Each structure stands twice: as C-alpha cells, then as structure tokens.
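Retry 2 of 3 after timeout on previous attempt. Resubmitting structure tokens to design endpoint.
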C-alpha cells in the first residue's frame, strides 16, 4: 500500500483521475447563502421552504416560533390532523 493510499484511501490511479478532473473542469459556485440572509446551520431548513407559497412559509415560521417546534414537526402535525379526520 502506497503512502497516498494510506492517507486518502484511494489508489494512485484514483488520485490522478480526481486531480485531473478537478483541474480541467471548472466548478460554478452556488449562491452565497449569507448574502441571501440564510445563517449558517439554517440552510437546510430554509431551502426546504423555497417551493412553498409565501403565506405557507409565514404560517410555518409563526407556528414554529409559537410552539417551539421545527417546520417539519408543524407539517407532520397538520398532515396527521388531516389523516385523523379522513380528508
């Protein structure tokens, strides 16, 4: 086992492939989440809401703060209520 394999868990050929791939292919950076107002650690919660209507997002945020629950917990509660009444 070579030193590279010991350090990376990859063979020399794999290291060479990825080195060449990274050098030859440009990577487009994603949006700057901080500039979008998304704090570190909150990205996953904020990005889940991006396809919802503004009114729904506002409701979820309000209920989340009021009930001290995550957005997912609020959604789970709403769906369980609908299931309980058979809708």
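Retry 2 succeeded. Sequence:
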């Amino acid at each position: 086992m070579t030193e590279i394999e010991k350090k990376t868990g990859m063979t020399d050929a794999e290291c060479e492939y990825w080195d060449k791939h990274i050098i030859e292919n440009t990577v487009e950076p994603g949006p700057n989440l901080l500039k979008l107002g998304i704090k570190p650690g909150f990205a996953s919660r904020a990005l889940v809401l991006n396809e919802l209507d503004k009114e729904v997002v506002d409701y979820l945020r309000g209920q989340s703060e009021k009930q001290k629950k995550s957005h997912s917990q609020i959604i789970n509660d709403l769906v369980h209520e609908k299931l309980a009444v058979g809708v």
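Attempt log closed. The chain has a mean pLDDT of 83.
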